[in-house]
Every structure is written in C-alpha cells, then in structure tokens.
Design brief:
The structure holds two protein chains of two kinds. By secondary structure, chain A is mainly alpha-helical. Chain A contains eleven helices and two strands, in the order H-H-H-H-E-E-H-H-H-H-H-H-H. Classes of the chains: A mainly alpha, B alpha/beta. At the A-B interface, helix 6 and helix 7 of A face helix 2 and helix 3 of B.
C-alpha cells in the first residue's frame, strides 16, 4: 500500500510540471491553430536561461523564472512577427505552420548546441536533491516546489482568461474567430499576445524543468511526443484538458515505471497518443474534429 | 425617400477568387425589415459580408448615413452602427450565456453601462436570464439563435443584418425567430435579412430584394415582390428550387 501511495505521489509531483509544459502549447493551438512543434525547444531555451543564471551568478531557478518568461515572451513576439504573421492569410496555413515550427525547433536546437554544447546539464539548488518524508513516503522537494509553482501559474492564467477583458477576447477568438472579429475583437493582436503568453509559459516551464530533469539541446524531441500526448488526450486547445491529462498520464507513467522499469514509463505517453487518436480523437474536453 | 444604407452596383468575391457579386444593389430605409431572397449561390450571404467589411469591395459604393463604408474593417463598420449575425455559428459555445452577452458589448469600454444594457436584454428575453450560467453550446438551436440575435441589441445598432437565422430550425422555432426579429424591428432597429425560404421571409418583411447570379434583379415593397411573376418563375415555376 505504501508503495502505491509513493507511486501516486511521485506521479502527481511531476504532473504539475507536465501540465505547465503543455498549457502554453495548448493555448497557442487554441487561438492560432498552430501545432507548435518548437514548444519543447522553447522550453529547453528557458531551461538554459535558468541554468546560466544559476551557473554564472548563483541565482535560484525561481528567481530566473520571471527573467526566462520575459526573454521567451520577447522571442515569441519576434517569432510571430517574422515567421507566422505573414502566413495568416495563406490557404496552406496548417501545413506551413507545422513545417515552420519544425524548422524553428531545428534552428533553436542547433543554436543551443553551438552555444552550450551537447553536455547534459542540470541546475542543482539544494532542494533539488532533498525530500520531505511523511511516514515512509517521500516527496522530492524540487518536484513538489515545481509542481506547486506550475499550478499557481496555470491558475493565474485561468483567472486572466476567465475575468479580464483581454481574456474574454482570447477565449472568444479560440471558440469562433469570425464571430469575435465581427464583435470588434482585434484578432491579430489576440494572436500575437496569445503566442507571446504561450512562449512565456514555455520559459517558466523551462526554469522549473532545469532542476527536475537533466537536459541537453536535442532532448526536446523526446518532450514533443510527451506534450503532444497531453494536448491530444486533453482535447486540442483545452487548457483544463491538458492539465487533467498531464496528471493522469504522469501517474500512469509512474506506475508503468514502477512495474516495468523506467525505460518503459515514457512509452505510456506514446501509447496514449496512439490510443486517443484511434479511439477518441477529440480527447477528453475537445470538440469532435470536423471532416473537411 | 431617405435611405439609411445605399448599396450600389457592388462587385466583390473571396480573396483573389472570381467575383461572386456582380452589381448588387440594395436600398435600406430606416425602421423597415428588408429581406434578400434568391436561389442558392446568388450571393446573398456574400452581400452581407461585403457590407460588414469581411470582404473587400472591388467596385461599387456602400454609403451609410451618407458616409462610405468601402475599405472599413468589420470592427469599424460595427462601431458605425451595423451588426452582422453570421450563419449558424455566431456564438461562443463554451462561454456562458452571460459571457456571450458581454462579448456582444465588447466594443463598449464602460462596464457598468454594459451590465445595465445586458439587464435590459434579459428583461426582454427572460430565457437568457434563466440560462445565464449555462454554456451557450448546450442550449437548443432556437435558444442559441435567440441569444445571437438578442446579443446584437446590446450595442443599440441602427442596422442588424441576419444571415439565414432560421437555418436548420424546426418550423415552430422558425416562427419564434421571426418573432424575435419583429421585437427588434419594434425597438427601432432596421433589419436586413437573408432568407432561403423566400415566401416566409417576404411575409415578414416590408421590402424585398431579389438577387440572382450576384446581381440585383429587382427590389420593391415585399408584397409586390411576393406577387411578381418573376418570383413565381424563380421559385415555383420553370427553374427548379431545392
């Protein structure tokens, strides 16, 4: 029994971080219909911002988190203006954005590898290797802090979307772009800001990931499958869905890891991706995909 | 005759594609209900989209209260006082009824004024108050259409353009939709409606406009249009009608 509780606790602790990693992807897809294959590479960039803050000035990843968010948000604005805005009117928007985000991921990976080499990195603040004990169950401090921080950030995002005027505009654009435009929403501005927020969330996730996982530039390919499975299981574009899927799959992966070994736990996400696409392509909270 | 909106010989189409409208004209008089009819592909919806700024007008004139609307964006046309309710999915399905009403007043910046206007709408359409916290997408088709149409009244517009509001609704519900349109007209809103069911549309209208192949064939008082032999031919005789 204690073993079961332990597995669930470890799964839940990581679930929050996965949720934050996936929510930016989900937001960008929801508003812009961009499947941002570069999202994990942007998370990776956030992790390097935290790493160098820690390495050079001994700054805690939690201090670097807002810095990474600002730097990544600026990157997001730049990417949007240079790469995606001109595609907005393209008839082949979907194909083009998939190819472009793929290219952006390659460029980021190459730039990070050139600048920082392919060495495995991890930030190592004291709490990263410490743990709380409740009876015989242990909770890794780093994962706990990262999970709680992730939930707080996602909660703030949810409040912003639910109650602010701009949040209304973002939700309306996600659900019915044409109707939003007809009611006076500047959908181009909504696209730009949502993209920047989504990429800023990648920066925040990267800072937290920097002490939860070890990382190197090409590892983002491993993350994309994980994030895709969260977003697809949750329902494309549903942030709540992404969060629920993150906790669900994270706990399942923890069980798989316990019974079959750590190498198999990643397989959980890949399998989930396949099964969901076959059985329920709209995911938990998504709408039925339209044929056409 | 003082026209509120005068559309003259408009040519327009989607993107760089062929022109769908090839000389469409409409005269809109204040306080009246105008119904645009015509066979499938005549350009009825396209005409409304051209007026509201969703499509670029390539030739012709659109004058509203004397000012040209050509080249304006949808939000600019909206601020001038013309609301457009597009076909079928005009709502935000995963926002509540109340949130949908707030979106109706998105262009207003004074939130207390907005909430007061929403209260007025809810007084007029109590079903919207009953369903306030329900997601719009979970309501019946008729209720959704009620919301879409009532929502335009928040801005107190001069003209509301409705693109086939009866589409996909049961006959009894269609009657309700036309009832709401009457309520709007009585509130002083000028209506421009596109209707597939020509007889039904004209019966509820003051003015009829007949469109075919992107051109205005003729327009006139609804009763006259209804009785015109050319309508009989277009809809009941020679040409097949779906």
């Amino acid at each position: 029994m204690a073993a079961i509780i332990q597995i669930v606790v470890l799964g839940l602790a990581l679930g929050g971080v996965y949720a934050l990693m996936g929510s930016g992807l989900s937001l960008i897809f929801g508003v812009m219909r961009i499947v941002n294959l570069a999202h994990p590479a942007l998370i990776m960039s956030g992790a390097y911002v935290a790493y160098w803050g820690f390495r050079l000035w001994g700054l805690d990843p939690f201090v670097m988190l807002p810095v990474a968010m600002v730097i990544l948000a600026a990157t997001g604005v730049l990417l949007y203006k240079l790469v995606f805005e001109r595609e907005a009117k393209s008839a082949r928007y979907s194909e083009m954005t998939v190819l472009l985000t793929f290219a952006v991921a390659m460029v980021l990976e190459g730039a990070l590898a050139t600048a920082f080499t392919n060495t495995q990195r991890v930030t190592s603040p004291g709490y990263a290797t410490d743990a709380f004990f409740i009876g015989s169950v242990f909770i890794p401090k780093g994962q706990l802090y990262a999970g709680i921080t992730s939930l707080v950030i996602i909660g703030l995002l949810a409040l912003f979307l639910k109650f602010s005027r701009f949040g209304y505009a973002i939700r309306a654009t996600t659900q019915n772009r044409e109707a939003a435009e007809l009611l006076g929403v500047n959908v181009n501005l909504v696209g730009l800001v949502s993209f920047a927020i989504g990429v800023a969330l990648a920066g925040a996730a990267g800072s937290l990931v920097s002490f939860v996982f070890s990382f190197f530039p090409s590892k983002h390919w491993e993350w994309i499958a994980v994030l895709m499975s969260l977003v697809v299981l949750g329902g494309m574009g549903s942030i709540l869905g992404t969060v629920v899927a993150a906790y669900l799959l994270s706990v399942v992966a923890a069980f798989v890891g316990f019974f079959f070994g750590a190498t198999w736990s990643t397989l959980t996400f890949y399998l989930a991706l396949f099964v969901v696409l076959l059985v329920r392509p709209q995911g938990l909270f998504g709408e039925k995909p339209e044929l056409a | 005759m003082t026209e509120l909106l005068q559309v003259t010989d408009v040519v327009a189409g989607y993107g760089d594609g062929p022109a769908i409208l090839n000389g469409a004209s409409v005269t809109v008089q204040p306080g009246k209900v105008h119904c645009i009819i015509g066979p499938n592909g005549a350009g009825k919806s396209t005409l409304l989209k051209a007026i509201c700024g969703m499509l670029r007008i390539r030739q012709g004139a659109v004058r509203f209260k004397g000012d040209s609307l050509v080249g304006l964006r949808p939000d600019q046309v909206l601020r001038r006082g013309i609301c457009f309710v597009p076909q079928e999915r005009a709502l935000f399905p995963k926002m509540t009824v109340r949130e949908n009403l707030r979106m109706g007043g998105f262009s207003l910046t004074d939130t207390t004024d907005l909430e007061r206007r929403i209260d007025e709408i809810e007084d007029r359409f109590p079903i919207l108050r009953d369903r306030r916290d329900q997601h719009a997408g979970t309501m019946s088709g008729g209720q959704q259409q009620t919301l879409a149409m009532a929502r335009t009244m928040i801005l107190k517009p001069d003209i509301v353009m409705l693109d086939e509001p009866s589409l996909g609704l049961a006959p009894k519900i269609v009657q309700e939709v036309f009832g709401i349109m009457q309520v709007m007209a009585e509130a002083g809103i000028t209506i421009l409606i596109v209707e597939q069911n020509a007889l039904m549309g004209l019966k509820h209208a003051d003015w009829g406009v007949v469109l075919d192949l992107g051109r205005t064939l003729f327009e006139g008082p609804a009763a006259e249009v209804l009785a015109d032999p050319r309508i009989q031919e277009l809809y009941l005789g020679g040409k097949k009608v779906a």
